[in-house]
Amino acid sequence: MSRQERENMIQFLTKVQGLTEGKLMLMTDEDVEHLYTRAYSLHEKN
Q: Quick one: three-class SS letters along the chain?
């Protein structure tokens, strides 16, 4: 994952899920991507 992709995912997760950037920065790329995919799917349904 590129740095820009990760940054975009983190921005989305902080807005939609209310997670803190600090917590997300400590996660692996795979963890961030998993959370993003799940949050995005739920966000699209609403």
A: CCHHHHHHHHHHHHHHCCCCHHHHHCCCHHHHHHHHHHHHHHHHHC
Q: How many CB atoms lie within 10 A of CB 14?
A: 14
Distance CA 3, CA 21 (A): 14
pLDDT digits (tens, 9 = 90+) for 21-39: 999 999 999 999 999 999 9
Q: What is the pTM of this model?
A: 0.88
Contacts of residues 40-44 at CB distance under 8 Å and 24 or more positions apart, as own/partner, are: 40/12, 43/16
What angle in degrees, to the nearest 10, is found between the helix axes of 29-45 and 3-16? 50
